[in-house]
Write a structure and sequence with these properties.
Elements: E1 3-13, H1 18-28, E2 32-41, E3 44-54, H2 57-73, E4 75-82, H3 84-92, E5 98-105, H4 110-122, E6 126-132, E7 148-155, H5 161-175, E8 178-183, E9 193-196, H6 207-215, H7 218-229, H8 235-245, H9 252-259, H10 267-276, E10 280-288, H11 289-299, E11 303-312, E12 315-321, H12 327-341, E13 348-352, H13 358-363, E14 366-370, H14 374-379, E15 382-384, H15 391-395, H16 400-404
Parallel strand pairs: 9-10, 9-13, 10-11, 13-14, 14-15
Antiparallel strand pairs: 1-3, 1-4, 2-3, 5-7, 5-8, 6-7, 11-12
Helix pairs in contact: 1-2, 4-5, 6-7, 7-8, 9-11
């Protein structure tokens, strides 16, 4: 005797024992579960079973008993027969490529989600699952740090990933929302090392600009810094020019600057969570080791690579010790740490905001432009511009409940 395939969709008020009661009915008829899924929004349940049952009296009886059980439980039941041909088409989809699209913002609107899902639909891609990653939002109490994130698991063949990403970038620009697109592979689910730029990423200032203000050359240095961040002049050249302008600054001011560094919103939450889950962390900075080491102690960072100020007789000489840590050196250090820790480069993440961060952003398994300049944002794999540094956790697929466990 042939078998029949059905999808049973259950909707209504969620309550304990629902799944147990329904599968108990199916078990009495020897049904084989082919797929199962559940979603719960505001205690309203959507539960689905795809099952195979022997055709004839068995299938008629099980449908009747399931309807009766659903009535008993106070939920709605709907059956959909599935042909063997359609079932096999569905099975064959499992060989398709998988991707993750993460949408981030201080809030999410229907328009933003509509535009993102329209791009997915236009490429004939299937959305397998949608999951909210942030906690529930009160409509009465004002949030001190509003943030919202959803994750879409999609499947299918993408012929032109660059074109796909470009469309997301346009939506991001037009609708003020962050959209990250990643391949859903073993590396994405097993990241192990996160490397941060320091100035304007881990902290919300450019230290060299602050030192320049104290040296009375603030406007001159700030102009050079901005030009370098935009990628208009070579980083090494800009670094040497700025260092010379700091000549004569007292060493005493370094401590005062360090203890007043404005740590970026979400940085502590991010790094505490990364440490809890066994990640290694590093500061790879074109700034200075003095401040990198201060942050290392403050935040519990594993590695620091930055430029060392030359100090003689208690004052800055305007020079530096060792090689300049530019964009290429940052990428080299990322590789060096990964090798030392036995981590594949695809398991690494790099986060930065300036043009000199692009080499490490493009080398890492996941490069994230954080509140970055347009040139950097347009050339990085992913970007976060709408919320704090802990937005990185949502790109890793963490839900707030995984994060809040350690707070």
């Amino acid at each position: 005797m042939t078998n029949e395939i059905f999808i049973l969709n259950i909707s209504g008020q969620d309550k304990p024992g629902l799944t147990s009661s329904l599968t108990n009915v199916l078990s009495q008829y020897g049904a084989k579960i082919l797929d199962i899924g559940q979603a719960n929004i505001h205690d309203t349940l959507s539960l689905g079973f795809m099952f195979e049952i022997e055709a004839g009296n068995n299938s008629a009886s099980v449908l009747k008993d399931l309807l009766f059980k659903a009535y008993e439980l106070g939920v709605q039941a709907k059956f959909t027969p599935i042909s063997l041909e359609d079932y096999e088409k569905w099975v064959n989809l499992q060989g398709k490529d998988r991707y993750i699209v993460t949408v981030l913002g201080d809030k999410l609107t229907a328009e933003q989600i509509s535009e993102v899902t329209k791009v997915i639909s236009e490429k004939n891609l299937n959305i397998d699952a949608i999951k909210r990653l942030t906690g529930r939002t009160s409509l009465v109490k004002k949030e001190a740090y509003p943030r919202a994130s959803i994750q879409l698991s999609i499947r299918g063949k993408i012929e032109n990933k660059a074109e796909f990403t470009k469309k997301f970038m346009q939506i991001s620009h037009d609708l003020d929302v962050d959209i990250a697109f990643q391949e859903d592979n073993i590396y994405r689910r097993n990241r192990r090392l996160v490397c941060f730029d320091m100035d304007s990423t881990l902290i919300q200032t450019e230290v060299i600009d602050k030192l320049a203000e104290l040296a009375g050359v603030g406007d001159q240095v700030k102009a050079i810094t901005e030009s370098a961040m935009q990628g208009e002049i070579d980083f090494n050249e800009s670094f040497i020019r700025r260092m010379k302008l700091l000549k004569g600054l007292s060493e005493d001011v370094l401590h005062d600057v360090a203890v007043n560094l404005p740590i970026t919103k979400g940085a502590r939450r991010l790094i505490d969570t990364l440490k809890k889950y066994g990640f290694k962390t590093a500061i790879l900075s074109g700034g200075f080791t003095y401040f990198g080491h201060y942050l290392q102690k403050e935040l519990g960072i594993d590695y620091v690579y930055a430029n060392q100020l030359e100090i003689k007789d208690g004052v800055l000489t305007g020079g530096y010790i060792g090689e300049i840590v530019n964009g290429e050196k940052k990428a080299d250090y990322l590789k060096e740490i990964a090798i030392k820790e036995g981590i594949d480069i695809s398991q690494t993440i790099a986060v930065g905001d300036g043009a000199n961060d692009l080499p490490m952003l493009n080398l890492a398994g996941l490069g994230i432009a954080f509140h970055a300049k347009p040139k950097v944002k347009n050339n990085a794999q992913s970007a976060i511009s709408s919320i704090g540094l802990d937005g990185v956790l949502y790109l890793l697929g963490y839900h707030d409940r995984h994060i809040d466990l350690i707070e």
